[in-house]
Design goal:
Layout lengths: L32 E6 L2 E6 L3 H6 L4 H6 L15 H12 L19 H11 L6 H13 L23 H13 L7 H12 L8 H10 L30 H16 L10 H9 L28 H18 L2 H21 L9 H13 L4 H10 L3 E4 L2 E4 L6 H14 L6 H17 L48 H15 L2 E2 L2 E5 L7 H12 L39 H17 L5 H18 L14 H14 L8 H12 L12 H5 L11 H13 L5 H14 L13 E3 L3 E3 L4 H17 L6
Antiparallel strand pairs: 1-2, 3-4, 5-6, 7-8
Helix pairs in contact: 3-26, 4-6, 4-8, 4-13, 6-7, 6-8, 9-12, 9-13, 13-14, 15-16, 15-17, 15-26, 17-18, 17-19, 19-20, 19-21, 21-22, 21-24, 24-25, 24-26, 25-26
The protein binds lanosterol.
The site of lanosterol has 19 residues, from α9, α17 and α19.
């Protein structure tokens, strides 16, 4: 997509503040939006002319995503679980996208769009008018108004959360930068909410960072982000390469921008910025003693208060390090090394970058270093487009540049587990899905790995500055697509597992023949197994992107305030299970390949799953809400070892945990508060389709001896099914960093389809009353 022909409307980026009524309170014609999907690179386009509309017809998936009538037929009502599963699949399979994958919005976090808008504003790179209109619509739709979260007019950290300064100050700013008038009644309400929370000065670190570079705050209010940390020798326990990848990859461009104290050059003359300086604070802007507010934060934002140690370090940095010891040569060296690492990150991901926080920050770093016309800046701008997603409520920033690999792998598994993989009518769908995965596997390691001193084949988890401290990736899959370039342990595992499921399936009519071709050849399956073998922690468990590189004590340096457990990689039952169950399947196919290592991996990982179980029989989930999600995974791990309810104390406890929490209507419903508090919290709306499906899958796998409670849960799924086979969106499904929720809208198809099919397979497909 070309930057040049992006319509420049509203004039916001050149300082004009005139709000255009076109942006505010209007919406675009939904019938003109199309999702383009080029080998998993997904972008939304607004068609200008009728001719274009004719040339590029809307797909069923487009309509589904936008909440329009899909035109799909009503299906004969399901009488049995398998029929219900099939009806669900009938609807859901129509949402498969051209390259073979599934996609959907991936919203939830409310701090992503504002970062985009601020970055595009200060770099003079406006969005098109239709995009602006839809973003404004989205942000307003997510405002806490009416019955939504107390209706105080603010925004939370995520769409279901109570208002915070972070959410409110940043989304308010984004709306203003998009041309919304401060006199709009919803903006007045937002300001009053912001003032009730103490104004923008009570925002967390990241809010202060964005508002400082926009020129609305002064850099003195931002706690230090010294790039010098990157110069520490690798052996130091606090070196950034040891941190969780998201934290270090955000710290990187943030420290670069902080070091330069870069401010939007037109800030002082831009009337809009001058207005924001009045609107966001409770005191006159000129009178604010900025440095006094470095640590000011509203209780609503302060999920994870800064430690005494971090506060001490910040005082040292502000009072001694920065004024007296931060010599120019040191600053120069630190900035140069950071810039090098930023370039490596850009090269490794073709400017997509790890996630939608570091992506706009890296864009800004390139803009500062190389100027507005640089290739790096243009390419960043193009790739930023992949994060923008149009849903029925407007345009949001997705949490990643899509959910392509993840949802596709789970869809294959659901179809396989439900028994559809051998049915000729579903063959094409599955073949296309696995062909998509084939196309998305990484075939090369990160730039520099092969020439680095830690190179080996098969690879290890060893890392070095020569390849930007990245984890190996040849043979791996990421969460979204190949173009993003980041190995994730469980994404690799789930993709490999689903491929193995299909590629080892015998033709039911001729068991000497396999039903699917070897879409992914043997050597590449082995590369993927090699990757999984690099993923294990000393504990036996697996983490998300890399094995743990630093001590949990690094959490003392968690400066973000709004998130918990972010500084290092942790042990996760979800990721561990994905790796264990996949390697178990892999060794059945290739029993001689690295057999001892795989056996040891599986034994220690499953042992970790056992010890990670809580007294009450549950496991805490970090990526889905919450105990129902993690429980489903952990149970699967134990089942691969031949454990069942009959022979395993662990599984008996796991089942008991679930059964004690089953609702009257037969389902399960767990609130996101479980993630925040690490204690079971029932969902305020009662049973949820997705969580009910997770528990059914766990109970069926564990061979829970009493069919009755499972049958009641199955009945709930069937009752909630709509006439066309779909299920409606309920509460948010996913989480990260304990406090931020994120949506997985395809889960309401994937897991009920799987649960109903698995139930029918095990207990028979009798009519459900
Ligand atoms: C994701 C999305 C997918 C998720 C799973 C694969 C489900 C998980 O099992 C492993 C971790 C992973 C890959 C994951 C990590 C953190 C992400 C990237 C996200 C939750 C999506 C958005 C989030 C990212 C950190 C958002 C940016 C915000 C920050 C606080 C850095």
């Amino acid at each position: 997509m070309s930057v040049r022909n992006r319509g420049h409307v509203n004039g916001h980026a050149n300082g004009s503040t005139k709000p255009s009524q076109k942006t505010v309170d209007s919406r675009t014609d939904p019938g003109r939006w199309r999702l383009r999907n080029e080998r998993g690179v997904q972008t939304w386009h607004y068609l200008q002319s009728d001719e274009e509309v004719k040339q590029w017809p809307m797909t069923i998936a487009d309509r589904h995503c936008l909440g329009l009538d899909t035109g799909l037929p009503q299906l004969p009502a399901a009488r049995t679980p398998l029929q219900a599963s099939e009806n669900g699949l009938n609807y859901y399979s129509k949402l498969q996208l051209e390259p073979g994958n599934w996609g959907c919005e991936y919203g939830g976090p409310m701090f992503l769009l504002p970062g985009f808008i601020v970055t595009l504003y200060v770099t003079d790179m406006p969005l098109t008018q239709p995009e602006q209109t839809e973003i404004v619509r989205y942000i307003f739709n997510m405002q806490n108004l009416g019955s939504k979260n107390g209706g105080d007019g603010g925004w939370g950290l995520h769409v279901e959360g109570d208002s915070t300064v972070f959410g409110t100050a940043m989304n308010y700013t984004a709306l203003r930068l998009l041309g919304v008038s401060p006199d709009d009644p919803r903006m007045r309400k937002a300001r009053s909410c912001l003032y009730d929370l103490g104004g923008a000065l009570n925002g967390p670190h990241w809010a202060k960072f964005w508002l400082a570079l926009l020129g609305v705050m002064n850099w003195e209010v931002v706690n230090p982000v010294p790039p010098e940390l990157w110069l520490l020798p690798d052996w130091t326990p606090i070196s950034p390469w040891r941190w969780w990848i998201h934290m270090r990859m955000i710290f990187l461009p943030m420290s670069f921008v902080w070091s330069k104290r870069w401010v939007y050059p037109k800030a002082d003359t831009d009337p809009l910025i001058r207005q924001l300086r009045q609107e966001l604070f409770m005191q006159p802007h000129d009178e604010i003693a900025w440095s006094r507010y470095r640590n000011a934060i509203s209780p609503a934002d302060n999920y994870n208060p800064k430690s005494w140690l971090l506060n001490l370090i910040n005082y040292f940095l502000v009072l001694i390090w920065v004024p007296y010891l931060r010599f120019d040569w040191l600053i120069g060296r630190a900035e140069r090394w950071c810039w090098k690492l930023i370039q490596m990150e850009d090269a490794n991901s073709d400017y997509a970058d790890l996630a939608p926080v570091n992506s706009p920050m890296n864009l800004l770093a390139c803009y500062i270093e190389e100027g507005p016309d640089a290739h790096s800046v243009r390419r960043h701008r193009e790739r930023l487009q992949e994060f923008l997603w149009l849903g029925k409520d407007g345009m949001m920033a997705n949490g990643t540049n899509g959910v392509q690999n993840w949802d596709t792998a789970f869809t294959i598994q659901a179809m396989f587990e439900a028994g559809f993989a051998t049915k000729p009518e579903h063959h094409q769908t599955l073949l296309k899905a696995v062909e998509f995965l084939e196309d998305q596997q990484f075939l090369e390691h990160p730039v520099g790995y092969e020439k680095s001193p830690v190179y080996s084949d098969p690879p290890t988890a060893k890392t070095s500055p020569e390849h930007g401290y990245r984890h190996v990736r040849k043979g791996a899959w990421g969460f979204s697509n190949r173009a993003q370039g980041y190995t994730v342990s469980d994404c690799t595992a789930e993709a490999l597992k689903s491929t193995l499921m299909l590629q080892t399936l015998a033709d039911p009519n001729d068991s000497t023949q396999s039903l699917f071709p070897m879409v992914i050849p043997e050597h590449r399956l082995k590369w993927a197994a090699d990757i999984l073998l690099t993923m294990q922690n000393k504990s036996g468990a697996c983490s998300s992107y890399e094995p743990t590189r630093g001590s949990e004590r690094l959490e003392l340096l968690n400066a973000a305030e709004v998130f918990g457990r972010i500084m290092v990689e942790y042990d996760y039952p979800e990721c561990t299970t994905a790796c264990v169950t996949t390697l178990d399947r892999f060794r059945q196919l290739y029993p001689d390949y690295r057999a001892n290592e795989i056996r040891r991996f599986i034994d220690t990982a499953v042992q970790w799953i056992r010890t990670n179980q809580r007294e009450d029989g549950s496991w805490y989930g970090s990526w889905g809400i919450c105990f129902t999600y993690a429980g489903m995974f952990a149970v699967e791990s134990l089942c691969t070892q031949g454990e069942t309810h009959a022979n395993s104390e662990h599984l008996r406890r796991a089942c008991a945990f679930f059964l004690h929490r089953q609702n009257e209507d037969g389902g399960w419903g767990e609130s996101y508060k479980s993630c925040e508090t690490a204690k079971w919290c029932p969902h305020p709306d009662g049973s949820q389709v997705v969580q009910t499906a997770w528990v059914i899958i766990a109970l069926v796998r564990a061979q829970y001896p009493d069919k009755e409670p499972i049958a009641r849960a199955v009945k709930l799924l069937m009752q909630r099914q709509q006439p066309k086979g779909e299920w409606l969106q309920e509460g948010i499904e996913g989480v990260f960093n304990k406090s931020c929720m994120i949506s997985y809208p395809n889960y309401k198809f994937i897991f009920p389809i799987q649960a109903l099919g698995m139930y029918a397979k095990r207990y028979g497909d009798a009519d459900v009353e």
